[in-house]
Amino acid sequence: MTGILSDAILGLNLTKFLLHLLNFAILFVALWLILYKPVMKFIRARQERIEEQKKQTEENLRASEEARALEEERLRTLDEEIETKRVAAEKAISEKCDEKLRETEVRAEEIIADAERRAEKQANKVVSDAKQGIKDAAVALAENIIEDKIGEVDDALIDKALKDWKND
């Protein structure tokens, strides 16, 4: 009767149960060797690649920050240099304008004195022509001075700045 009862429980006897348990153990070990270890190896390799990429990205970020800092310093230096040259150019232009203005004023006074000797009507015309000539000469002189001063040096600086901006 105990044999009937033991067969009745899930239809297994002790031998079948132990065989199923052995099959389960073999299946578990086989799956462990075939699936678990390779999958874990793959996961570890992937994690290492991700960490390596993360380190590379951080290194690239640091390098780009350093490059950006160098560029900012170079731009600051360039701005200071441009400002220095601009101030020097303005000073030179101002001096030239003052000198030319004095020369034209002396010349205008001579023309006015000569014109007053001839006639009052003709003097007014000469004075107005002289004033217009002074204005035109000052404007032309300022244009020439600006073109001379800005021409060579600033073209090179502007070309260099444009090249640097294109490279960024």
How would you describe this structure to a colleague?
The chain has 168 residues and is an all-alpha fold. Helix content is 95%, strand content 0%. It has a domain at 88-168. The model has no long low-confidence stretch (mean pLDDT 82).
Tell me the distance between the termini.
92 Å
Largest sheet: none
SS element count, helices? 3
What would you call the quaternary organization? Answer: single chain
The class by helix and strand makeup works out as: mainly alpha
What is the beta-strand fraction? under 5%
- What gross morphology would you assign? rod-shaped
- List the secondary-structure elements in sequence, H or E: HHH
How many strands in all?
0
Q: Overall pLDDT, averaged?
A: 82
The helical percent reads: over 70%
Low-confidence stretches: none
Determine Rg (CA atoms, Å).
47 Å
